[in-house]
Amino acid sequence: MGSGPTFAQDADRSVSAMPEGLWGQPEVNVPDGGGTEQVRRVTVPATMVYDYTPGAAPTRFLRGLQEGRILGERAEGGTDVYVPSRGMDPVLGRATTESVEVGPKATITTFCVVHIGFGENAPPPPFVSALILPDGAAVSLYGTVLGIDHTEVRIGMRVRPVWKDPAERTTSFENITHWEPIDEPDVSAEELKGHM
Amino acid sequence: MRDVAIVSVAQSEHRRAVPELNEVEMVQPIIQGVLEQIGAGISEIDFTCSGSSDYLAGQAFSFVMTLDAVGAWPPIAESHVEMDGAWALYEAWLKIQAGHADTALVYGYSKASPGDLPRVLSRQLDPYYYGPLWPDSVALAGLQARSMLDAGAITEAEMAEIAHRSRTAAESNPHAQLKGSPPVEELLGAPYVSDPLRRHDCAPITDGAVAVVLAAGDRAREWSQRPAWIRGIDHRVDSHNFGARDITRAPSAGLAARRAGLGDGPVQVAELCAPFTHQEKILRNELGLGDEVVVNPSGGALSANPVMGAGLIRLGEVANRISAGEFDRGVAHATSGHLLQQNLITVLEGDS
Amino acid sequence: MAESPDAGEILRAPLTIGYDFQRTTGPVIGAFFTALAERRMLGIRDTGGRVVCPPVEYDPESGEPLTDMVEVGTEGTVRSWSWVSRVREGQPLATPHALALIQLDGADTSMLHVIDAADPSEVSTGARVRVRWAPESVDGFGNLVCFELAEGKG
Question: Residue B302 sits in which domain range?
Fold first, then answer.
């Protein structure tokens, strides 16, 4: 069971004084006590545990990943293939019902070079974090681009996913460990319009 | 004041858990339904406003996700409240009053099943004195029921009668989650879940959604044979510091009712959002409802309680009955927070 | 067509969302927590002369800032209670107990806390209770473990 909130004094950071007039609360008169240092800040943990369910369309996408396939979806009467689909075509406001395999070849639509470490799941910095448009899809997926010096990465560059071994795959986006360049001509900015 | 009416209502068949769908998948058929009923497309809606909370399903930016069901690209004019959808309706009503919109889509939803709702709701409390104790919502409501029992303001038998009447009424509500009830004597023989509350005193935990369309003036008459006109709407709040107030009352509900003009004429039907049986009695007293008023013909929140939707459902239930010609004047109540802390009252009328 | 998985085939995963919020107390709440570390309870006098405990920064009626903090008792009277039969993570006691509104001696309002009792039949409105302090002084709110039943009737 929890022990209630814990109290941080000024160990980790200082409590700055508010400018005169902004902090409207007057000083209070407190009966004399034991001279304990005034509490200024409390740490109040708030943790909740959920039995999370992603829904029907994301379940189809994640099960596809387990088979090494990238599955997008299209609404009836729609043209755009969304990947991963959360269940809706957000332009039509209608459910996506048609499963469409996209990729695996893809194009970088935008990227940035990350120089800050993001923990054990991220590659060592600097690395490239990118939005990647699988062939046949209307929207991009997020991924990291490895296997090339970060200074050589560019918008329009062609890439393909690198998968975990089939035996290690689960119903997880982490089945695609990263994306790597392939030897194909860049896609022009004109062709990427509407997908950025 | 512009004449603004509820012209269309849709809600889900409420269930304890809808694990096979995510929130946007659950909400989309309701939004599609509320528009199809009036033959309208999203392009005819000037403003969209929703009520929901990310804490319920543990879904970050849940309300952004559900906007996909509205066809929100290219961008639409929209807003969101972290409150019951009834407050989203209030915002939409203001938008129409201000002349910035003639029509509005309003929805509220809850997928509470992934979390432990009575615990999740404790995060609504003051974070210094109440939150660290993680009091569950049922035990908190128990404090209020006990205060009423001690004060002679209600009896356990009256509470059981409210449960019995509500869930019996729900038998004719196709959307209700709990329908039918054992007799009162049997209910009173059941053990307490949180003394002095028994299971029947508590609303169920519900996954579900509700949507309504508001329209002004001639557009409302075009979309509805008998629009349910909003004649008054007001919301008020009592102190969250319930250790320092009389919790056997909800003065904010009475004040909101007066400000909404409830007393300007007789009222035939009332839908009160009372997730616990004893709260219906508090609301009847604050609103001054007599025995002649039909209360919660839908079964109320005790029969289906999608948090962030249950109040908007009350508005929809009154509006539907007015539009159907069953009643001419009714009142809908919505609440947010614990122990009837915040209360919204809407008076609805049909043309005679 | 995409096949719709039924409820049994749907994926599920445990998801934990947690934040250790750091909250600035301000002078009033800070003084209350400081006093708890000294095994004292403080309230604050409102503009009508009532003592509000736990203390608040502004008058509940008028909104005027309040400054006059006063010591109240460590015993009090149960004003309302309910029974917590299913204990949840984070609650002050690990066994079933009462959630209660407790009016401390010298205060005019009630504070929310829990009462350690074996059975609901032991608890009643009007019962006298006293603070159970943590065996060793810890920071702030943790000093107040719970309330326990005392002799007498309020």
Answer: 228-349
